[in-house]
Amino acid sequence: MEIIKSNKQNDKICLDGHMYTLYYETSETIKWRCSKKSSVRCPAVLSTDKQITEYEKIHRHNHLPNRKEVMVTKALMNMKEKSSTTTTNLVEIFANGVSKLDKSAKAQMPSEDTVKRTLRNHRSKGNPIDPKSLEDCIIPHTWTINSDGHRFLLNDNGIVDENGKCKADERIVIFATDEGLLILLSLQLG
C-alpha cells in the first residue's frame, strides 16, 4: 500500500494495481473508494485505520487492476512536484519522468504536449496574478527574497495604501542579489 497525492493534493492510496480516493472518515476508520467510481461505476471500497497502516477490502472491483496506470500516475505526480519546486526545464522533467517507466507504461502516458501544459499550469499556480494596472502591481513577500532566503527586491518606490493598492504614477523596482551587486562593484569600467 502506497499513499500518493491526487490532482487536488488529497491523499490517494495505491494498492494491488488499484487506486482509491478519500470517501469519508469515521471516528476510528477512513473509507476510500475506487478512483474509477465515476468512470466504470466501480463499487470497491477500502477501509483503513486512521494511521493508514491496516486495511480491509469491503467491496470487490468490477474491473481489472492496472499497475501501469498506477505507475503513470506516480510518474506524473513526481513530475508535478519537480515542476513546482525546481526551475528545471519542463522538457527535462518530462524526459526524466518517462525514462523511469517501462515500455507498456509509457504507452499509457498522456502525450508530451499534454503533460508539459499540465506542468506549466502546475508551476504557474504560485505566480502572482498579472496586474491590469500599476496600482494592481503588488509584489508578495515571497517574491522579494531568493531561494536561499536572502533579499532579492532592493528597491520599490511604490507605496501601498490601506486597501492594498499601490500609489505611484511612475514606479522603479530593482531586483538583484547582494552577491550580484558585489560583482558589479568589483568590475572596472573602461
Automatic annotation (TrEMBL):
GO terms for molecular function: zinc ion binding. Residues 4-63 form the FLYWCH-type domain. Keywords: Metal-binding, Zinc, Zinc-finger. This is FLYWCH-type domain-containing protein. It comes from Macrosiphum euphorbiae (potato aphid). The lineage of its organism: Eukaryota, Metazoa, Ecdysozoa, Arthropoda, Hexapoda.
